[in-house]
Structure formats: C-alpha cells, structure tokens
Amino acid sequence: AYPMALLAYALSAVGIADNADMVTIGALMILVPGLLFTNAMRDIIYGDTNSGTNRIVQVLMIAAAIALGTAAAWRVDSALFGASETVATLTHSAVVQCLAAMIGCYGFAILFNIHGPGALLCVLGGTLTWAVYLAVLEISGNSIGAFFWSSLFASFYSEIMARIRKYPAISYLVVAIFPLIPGAGIYYTALYAIGGDMAMASTYGINTLATAGVMAAGILVVSTVVRMWTMHKTK
User: Fold this and answer.
1) Is the pLDDT of residue 230 over 80?
2) pLDDT at 203
3) Angle, CA of 171, 150 and 33, to the nearest 5°
4) How far is Cα 199 from Cα 177, in angstroms, rounded to an integer?
5) Alpha-carbon distance 184 to 198, whole Å?
6) What distance in Å separates the CA atoms of residue 132 and residue 117, rounded to the nearest whole number?
7) Is 8 in contact with 17 (CB distance < 8 Å)?
8) Considering only CA atoms, which of 194, 188, 184 is closest in space to residue 78?
9) Where are the alpha helices (DSSP H) in the chain?
10) How far apart are CA 74 and CA 80, in angstroms?
11) For residue 15, is pLDDT > 80?
12) Integer-rounded Cα radius of gyration of the chain
C-alpha cells in the first residue's frame, strides 16, 4: 500500500496525475479484503461464529495496515511536495460508472481464476449490482439504503446463478459485490486520522462501518431466506 500511495502522490505533485486520491484508491482496491469480508459474513450467517469472528478480525487488521500505509505515504509526500488533504469529487455518468464496474469486476474474475461463461456471469452480476446502487441512490438519495438494496440484489443474483450452474454462490458473490466495497471510506478515514482531523476521520469511519454493516445485512437476508426455502423443500 505504501509504495502505491507514495507513487500516486509523487505523480500528482509533478503534474502527471490530476487526482492523487482517485489514483491511490483505485490502485488499493486490489488489496481490499473483499473475499475475506464476504466469507466472514457467510460464516456468521451459517452459524460458524468463531470462524466468522476470526475472519472479521483479519479484515480489520488488513484494512488498518492498508490505511496506515497510505497515510504514511501521504505524510512523506506532504513533507516533500506539499500534498494536501483533499477529497476527490470526480463525477461520471451512470453508463461510464457501469462500464468501469464491468472492467473492474472482470479484473477480479481473472484474479480469482474464474474462466469461461462463469467469469462473464460474475461480471454481469457486478455491473447490475452497481446499476441497482445508482438507481436506488437516484430515487432515494440515501447511500446507505442504496448499499443495502444493491448488496441484497448481488446476493440474490449469486444464489440464482449457483442453482442454475451448480457452483457455490460465493464464487459469484465475491465478484458481484466488489463495486460496493468501501475502499474510499477506509482511505479517507486513515488520511484524516493521520492528519489529526479526528472529526472527519470519525465521520468517514462511521460511514464505512455502516456501509459494511448494511452490506452484511443484505447478504444475511437473502441467505436466510434461501436456507429456509431449501430446508422447506427437503422436508
């Protein structure tokens, strides 16, 4: 995390990268423990509390390490080049965002060694999940609610694909839910904490935890309903 962030801020300082925050966040997304987080939620949902708790602790430790690495890089670059604490405000159309989500999800499908039609279905799930998020956000204006409904959709989509293609639902879920992982929240929480602005750090930290919580709730709702339905069918 440290070299990535250090390079991003250095490129911004010399005028090559227009927005160091976005470059850093994008680069760090490959390190965000999305698979571990999803597996932790699944373990807790299925009653394996010890395993789920252990995985959650690992997620928090990895997130903290990523955050400290990026924050340390900001400290170094601020001393060398005068890097400032600015929050990126880039905006793009829904079509461009969905296209970016599709490309990012395909990259993660490759990373998780998913091939053939399965990879395309995973990418489709991630793209549709982000489209649902944008639609709910446009209608309600509530980002937390948008995270809940889009994670619920991702979980529902994964369960359907798992039954159609006879593969574990987690294989689809880990890619479909990738666009929702709050990497920016982790980044800004650490940035403001290292900078000494604890009020802003608390704001971003609480929002990030709330996002993770509602995502877990969306997965929980679908998984619980599917399990109850499966148990009913087998009786």
Assistant:
1) no
2) 87
3) 50
4) 29
5) 17
6) 22
7) yes
8) 194
9) 2-13, 20-28, 34-45, 49-81, 94-111, 116-140, 143-165, 169-176, 183-195, 198-234
10) 10
11) no
12) 19
Cα(4)–Cα(147) distance, integer angstroms: 28
Tell me the H-state helices in 141-197: 143-165, 169-176, 183-195
* Range in 67-71, 78-82, 168-172, 221-225 with the lowest mean pLDDT: 78-82
DSSP, collapsed to helix, strand or coil, labels residue 88 as coil
C-alpha 75/C-alpha 6 separation (Å) is 9
Structure-token pair, residue 10: 């250095």
Q: What pLDDT score does 34 carry?
A: 61
CA proximity to 117, closest of 129, 128, 127, 109: 109
Of the candidates 178, 176, 158, 179, the one whose C-alpha atom is nearest the C-alpha of residue 168 is 158
Show the CA angle centred on residue 118, arms to residues 114 and 120, nearest 5°: 100
Which of 12-21, 46-55, 185-194 bottoms out in mean pLDDT, i.e. has the lowest? Answer: 12-21
Grade residue 81 by pLDDT with cuts at 50, 70 and 90: low
Greatest extent of the chain over all pairs of C-alpha atoms, in Å: 68
Q: How many CA atoms lie within 13 A of 54 on its CB side?
A: 5
Q: How many residues does the chain have?
A: 235
Which whole number is the average pLDDT over 135-154? 92
Element of type H or E holding 113 = none
- DSSP assignment letter at 90: -
pTM: 0.74
- Joined tokens for residue 15: 């005028």
Q: How far is CA 156 from the centre of its chain?
A: 18
